[in-house]
From TrEMBL:
Residues 22-115 form the HD domain. Signal peptide: none annotated. It comes from the Bacteria. This is HD domain protein. InterPro entries: HD/PDEase_dom, HD_domain. Pfam families: HD (PF01966).
């Protein structure tokens, strides 16, 4: 079943209405995830799950801010999956896709025990955007490349984005 990302993007934009920074963030993560997944040759079903997860990966920020007055990654991982599940169910995503997307949303700030290429790529795509948005220094970016990045396409994107030596 080919999943349509347009309705999911629109629903996330409505959910994040007025939060331009968060909307821009998820759109950039989605773009990098799509690029890396395609370059890595993910099977179509895994690519769709990756893209859906990239779109909703930070859906837990709003409830985390309301509940804990923090957008910390640990809180996002707790609060995000139930909200993502509701949104994906409303959009009639298949149950198997919903389960994997919620798994990824609930772990996108956990960098040990990465159990699939979709998970690895989501982490890399989020780092690509966060490193830029947080104006991370080059020395730290090189450390992240060594410790986090595993895909050839993700490493290439990181090197190109920040003009790092190969």
């Amino acid at each position: 079943m080919a999943l349509k990302m347009g309705p999911l993007v629109a629903a996330m934009m409505e959910y994040e209405r007025g939060a331009a920074q968060r909307i821009n963030h998820f759109l950039k993560v989605y773009s990098f995830a799509k690029l890396i997944g395609e370059r890595e040759g993910l099977p179509a079903s895994d690519q769709e799950i990756l893209e859906a997860a990239a779109i909703v990966h930070d859906i837990g920020i709003r409830p985390s801010l309301e509940k804990y007055q923090s957008s910390g990654g640990n809180f996002q991982e707790i609060e995000g999956p139930p909200v993502a599940r509701g949104l994906l169910e409303r959009l009639s995503f298949p149950q198997q896709a919903i389960e994997r997307v919620c798994f990824l949303v609930g772990r996108h700030h956990t960098y040990q025990g990465i159990d699939g290429k979709d998970y690895q790529i989501l982490v890399e795509a989020d780092f690509l955007v966060n490193l830029y948005e947080e104006k991370t220094d080059k020395q730290s970016i090189v450390k992240v490349r060594k410790n986090i990045f595993r895909t050839d396409a993700g490493i290439k994107a990181l090197n190109d984005l920040f003009a790092l030596p190969e």
